[in-house]
Design brief:
The structure holds two protein chains of two kinds.
Chain A lengths: L17 E3 L2 E3 L2 H12 L5 H4 L20 H7 L2 E3 L2 E7 L6 H8 L8 E7 L4 E7 L5 H10 L8 H5 L8 H24 L5 H25 L1 H12 L6 H20 L7 H19 L18 E5 L5 E5 L8 E4 L9 E5 L2 E4 L1 H4 L5 E3 L4 E2 L4 E2 L4 E5 L28 H27 L1 H14 L3 H20 L2 E3 L3 H8 L2 E5 L5 E12 L4 H12 L4 H9 L10 E5 L3 E6 L2 E6 L1 H4 L10 E7 L2 E12 L3 H9 L3 E5 L7 H7 L5 E3 L4 H11 L5 E5 L5 H6 L2 E6 L11 E4 L6 H34 L5 H28 L4
Helix pairs in contact in A: 7-8, 7-11, 8-10, 8-11, 9-10, 10-11, 10-14, 11-15, 11-25, 13-14, 14-24, 15-24, 15-25, 16-24, 17-18, 24-25
Chain B lengths: L2 H25 L8 H5 L11 H16 L1
The chains are: A alpha+beta, B mainly alpha.
């Protein structure tokens, strides 16, 4: 079964494959899931989508905190009379098989009554009876079939998430009124002097008035509010002329029908609001399953195990931990607080914090920082600081995190809006003065007509449709933006700063090379066998590169946590580990990770692990270097400086040993003169990402990890970054062109308005026409430029 | 010709009824997830029925033992 793939998850089966029921599985986990599914009549899972599964991971003890009823109470949505309802986020949901099997959960446990998947959000909502079932049992059940839910501190703090559906309501109201008013006003467009029409037109007019009321006072209220806010802060945003237009349309139309001067402009009024809301709706689409607001809360566990004075264990919520408490950190748990190691050998993966995947070792008595993940055995630690006071979490006390970037940025539309408002008001005043002199009865008519026809509907639509569509194009290339405003900000940047570890380097493949005496075939085989038994990340990577097919049975195997491993077959022993462990003097190589090998107590040589840079890093820098100032901010030591200099353009600024606060301060300093793009990945970049004008988080797995940012970029698409920036500039150009186009319509309209000939029918034609042509133009243009991205 | 009032009343009632239906459907959350139902409707009752009873009981006892 050399080249077979797993029937459950589709991974390579390799050496450890399991054969069961005439099918190949990559591991026992996958086989177990298959067994569960087939024995419960759920084998259709494999027919809907082939090889759709996910390997389940070991979770047993991790969810012990769900025994704590207080915590369960906070997590469930509904809890009464033996029935609980809970929404869980499951990042591994990815295909229709997932939906199917998760919605058939009741086959796996009778206590589950209803389960419903929300695919775009990647959540499942489960209703279950609490009699001999519990939230913990549910979580374990999901975990056992490879759908481990993601429960973090964030969920614990979440209070009744209400969905905001007001925009849909408003759109519905406006659309409903628009359609009806159009029908009612249709007869009057042609001004046929027909008897019955004359008879009933008053009724129709008042009906239109009635329909436009909710449009103006409910659907359009946001524009009034925004315009009012704008004026109060002495800012003429685009909503000012829009609100002015809506108001003028409404007042003039009402006066018209009261005084029987005409049918009014209710059709244009409702149409205008409808189109504007449509633009808003189009722009609003975000990626429901991605979170751009994450802070440490998303990664920290809800509860930890505290040791009581008498040695008993108890689960406590992490906010209730006090300084001086003793807590237990189990394998693969995250350390929630700064603490001192009391018992056990710590092997901490700080990749959440620094992006560096290499684990560090700590002995008892040493300090551990919050945010690290323990890879080895159980630890006992003493708490030094509470959760909110810890080194990492303190960063979130900084005011950057409460700042809203959007409100500080004047968008293109708003800057146009200012000039536009002034121009419109000037034209309206001039025209009115002219008519006052020439024919004063027309003056008011002309004044209102100008305000009506100049209402910048098309301008207001240009940005939402261009940016909204671009957002979608970016999304297709795995560049997910928080909102469309990011595109405009991205087009303005002139400096790009990169984090090194995890951003420029990849966590996935380490370059490994061997130095020293060549190992014999037998030694290699022994080494590989020994490595196979170890779960250490370095052992795993080394295991995969060794070319040996012979697998022996070890007579003896020992793992010395924090030092190395030892394996023995007959007379031969092999030791792999740190220099001190295999009996060699420590060399002064701090820059890369080194693993020494000795066979039969004879030091043979060493394996050197080097960080590898992502493919095409050189190209990105060369391309960006032409137009932008570049920089590297790294939390690591400067051991890689030489190598970086080889790849990167000469004038790239490089700063090493930067703490999270240092990064933030550096960006802030730069921002005095520049607009900065920050590209990072770890929680240690969170401050810099928040401070920068545009913060992009690079992520290997979009669903799992990324700090708070403006955009999330799939690591495999990092090379497209220069193209994304170029496209965002193109988008701004498209918006500007649309402005020109809509100005043409405005000039035509203004001709009618200024000369006092504006009929409702002209407004009713011109307004939708300009809006639709802008929508068509922006969509075609963005798609045209977006196509170039696919190379 | 006052029949036009009747007609207007009827047509507006119908329109408002549909509008109310729209509002109710939004309120009930029908527009929150517009993707999953499109997949769900394609599923039939595909569960394999044979020997379900016996294995299910096994499964249950397994589950209970691991959960404790």
């Amino acid at each position: 079964m050399a080249d077979s793939t797993c029937y459950h998850c589709g991974d390579e089966c390799g050496k450890n494959g399991v054969r069961f029921d005439d099918k190949d599985f990559c591991c026992n986990g996958c086989k177990t899931v298959y067994e569960i599914f087939t024995s419960n009549g759920l084998s259709t899972y494999y027919e809907i989508e082939a090889k759709a599964g996910t390997t389940p991971s070991e979770i047993r003890k991790k969810y012990d905190f769900l025994d704590n009823q207080e915590i369960v109470e906070r997590l469930v949505e509904f809890n009464e009379e033996g029935v609980q309802v809970v929404s869980l986020s499951i990042p591994t949901i990815h295909c229709s098989s997932c939906i199917w099997v998760l919605e058939n959960l009741n086959r796996l446990h009778p206590a589950v009554t209803v389960s419903q998947v929300d695919f775009p959000k990647k959540t499942i909502r489960v209703t279950y009876k609490t009699q001999d079932f519990s939230l913990k049992a549910l979580v374990l059940l999901l975990g056992s079939i490879g759908y481990e839910p993601y429960i973090s501190l964030e969920e614990y703090n979440k209070k009744g998430n209400k969905v905001d559906r007001s925009l849909i309501y408003k759109l519905g109201v406006a659309g409903f009124a628009f359609g009806n008013v159009m029908l009612f006003s249709f007869p009057e467009y042609f001004e046929v002097e027909e008897f019955w029409l004359e008879q009933y037109k008053v009724v129709f007019r008042w009906l239109m008035f009635a329909f436009s009321l909710p449009v103006v006072f409910y659907a359009g209220q946001d524009y009034f509010i925004s315009a009012y806010k704008g004026i109060r802060s002495k800012l003429l945003n685009i909503d000012v002329p829009i609100a002015l237009g809506i108001l003028t349309l409404f007042v003039r139309s009402t006066v018209d029908i009261v005084l029987d001067l005409g049918s009014g402009f209710f059709d244009s009024l409702t149409g205008l609001v409808f189109f504007l809301l449509l633009g808003k709706f189009f722009q609003q689409r975000t990626y429901a399953y991605l979170s751009f607001e994450r802070d440490y809360k998303s990664y920290f566990p809800i509860a930890v195990t505290r040791l009581k004075k008498n040695g008993e264990e108890e689960n406590v919520q992490i906010y209730n931990i006090d300084v001086g408490d003793r807590i237990l950190i189990r394998s693969h748990e995250i350390i929630p607080v700064d603490s001192i190691l009391i018992k056990g050998t710590a092997e901490i993966d700080y990749s959440f914090v620094t992006g560096e995947s290499e684990a560090v070792f700590r002995e008892s008595g040493e300090k551990l920082f919050a945010g690290g993940k323990q890879l080895g055995d159980v630890l006992e630690v003493e708490v030094l600081k509470t959760v909110s006071q810890s080194y990492l979490t303190q960063l979130w006390g900084n005011s950057v995190f409460s700042k809203d970037k959007v409100s500080h940025f004047q968008s293109l539309t708003d800057s146009i809006g200012k000039r536009f408002t002034i121009a419109v008001l000037t034209i309206a005043t001039l025209a009115t003065i002219y008519w006052l002199v020439y024919d004063s009865s027309m003056a008011l008519n002309v004044f209102t007509s100008v305000l009506i026809i100049a209402c910048p509907c098309a301008i207001a639509l240009a940005a939402p449709f261009t940016l909204g569509n671009m957002l979608r194009i970016f999304g297709k290339h795995k560049f997910y933006l928080k909102n469309s405003n990011v595109i405009e900000r991205l087009s303005k940047i002139d400096t790009a700063i990169f984090d090194k570890t995890g951003t420029l380097t990849t966590n996935q493949k380490d370059a490994i090379y061997y130095e020293g005496m060549e190992l014999t075939a037998q030694e290699t085989a022994l080494l590989k066998t020994t490595l196979r038994a170890s779960n250490h990340p370095l052992s795993r990577s080394l295991y995969h590169i060794l070319k040996s097919n012979e697998i022996m049975t070890l007579d003896e195997f020992q793992e010395h946590t924090g030092k190395g491993i030892e394996g023995r077959v007959k007379q031969h022993t092999i030791k792999v580990g740190s220099a001190a462990y295999v009996g060699k003097e420590q060399s002064n190589s701090l820059t890369s990770t080194v693993v020494y090998v000795s066979a039969d107590e004879d030091v043979k040589g060493r394996f050197v692990f080097k960080n590898t840079y992502r493919d095409g890093i050189g190209d990105i820098f060369e391309e960006l270097g032409k137009d932008y100032a570049l920089g590297i901010l790294s939390g690591d030591n400067d051991g890689e400086r030489g190598q970086l200099q080889k790849v990167l353009p000469e004038k790239t600024a490089m700063l090493f040993n930067q703490r999270p606060e240092d990064k933030l301060d550096y960006i802030q300093e730069l921002q005095k003169e520049h607009r900065v793009l920050m590209v990072g990945d770890g929680l240690n970049d969170a401050g810099a990402l928040a401070q920068s004008d545009v913060g992009v988080a690079v992520s290997e797995n979009i669903n799992v990890f990324s700090p708070a940012c403006d955009a999330i970029l799939d690591a495999s698409k990092l090379t497209l970054l220069p193209d994304f920036i170029r496209l965002s500039k193109k988008s701004v150009q498209i918006i500007k062109m649309s402005f020109l186009l809509s100005l043409c319509y405005n000039i035509i309209g203004l001709y009618f308005a200024v000369t006092g000939q504006l009929q409702p029918v002209i407004a009713a034609i011109l307004m939708p026409l300009s809006s639709i042509s802008i929508v068509v133009f922006t969509t075609v243009a963005t798609n045209f430029f977006g196509k170039k991205l696919k190379k | 010709m006052s029949v036009i009032y009747v007609l207007l009343a009827i047509s507006i009632t119908v329109a408002v009824a549909f509008f109310a239906a729209f509002v109710l459907s939004v309120k009930s959350g029908q527009y929150d997830d517009t993707y999953t139902p499109s997949v769900r409707m394609l599923f039939e009752d595909e569960v394999v029925k044979d020997e379900k009873k016996s294995t299910k009981n096994n499964q249950k006892s397994n589950k209970n033992s691991t959960n404790q």
